[in-house]
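Retro notes
What went well: the complex prediction finally ran end to end.
Inputs used:
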Amino acid sequence: MDEQRLRQLLEKHHRESFGWALCCCRRDRLRAEDVLQRAYLKVLAGKARFDDRGSFKTWLFAVIRTTARDERRREVLRRVGFLRYAGEARETPAEQVAVEALDREQLQAVFQKALEKLPGRQRQVLQLVFYHDMSLSEAAKAMAVSIGSARTHYERGKKALRERLDWKPDELEPGRKSAPSIVW
Amino acid sequence: MNSNPEENRLQALFGELKQQDERMAPAFERVLSGARRRESQPIAGRIGYTAFIAAAAALVIVVVTIGMLSHRPAVQPSIAVQTPRPDRSNVTPVPEPAALSLGNWQSPTAFLLQSSDEWGQPVETPDDAGFPATRPQSKDPT
């Protein structure tokens, strides 16, 4: 595939690629942009080659995911000896606060926080399915895992989100307008 | 669209997140030019990472080599000295220890059971003090 064609395809998927890079970088915008640059460089320089089998988007997402993973490792090496996450807040039952009737914006913020707290694989598979409209088998390809493993992460991720967002069965019924109560 | 209400809700939340991300997504040209700049830059950045790995590998090799040398056994002479084998024909065999039989066994406190006669000496009592060791023969009343 020539560079011009590759560039067109990258541009076509650029916004979604950025969303995926954000997911792989735990919503760190600067790092996501950096990862995207590196991934584009790999694609354009021919270090990552698309072999025309399967979807370009799935392949590109796999490249972005591995680039983000490498970047994370590099970051760990850079910070050897430093407690990077020392100040990171840890969720304890005492800190859980019940939030009632959140408005749309707040709900989105809480949802994003809940998403961030999910293990990487669970977060990724949910993002690929619900955000990028991929099937489970496509998601499995992008994540380089078996479809069975992807399904397991998908179910566990949904369950974890349901618990974090404290969705009750009656709140999930169609037609209900109020926001769900969220235990955080 | 999913029929599952939970999935519908997740779809809506992810859809909103997607819109938010798309609004703040950097322009494609900007990311591409950043990638191009990175490509044209010297490989200093990459060298840093590679150098770290190479230094770590070299350190491991040095440590392992030192460890192996320090625990190496003393060097044996390559030519073994020919020493004459001792002539074992004149060596008297060491007698085997006598087999212990139950009949020969003695209790460690067996000597306490021995009588004075067995010792061969008369037992002196306080009444005997000052008298000759041999008692006079009692007179026969008859």
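What we learned: Residues 12 and 50 of chain B are 44 Å apart (CA to CA).
What to try next: split runs per interface for comparison.
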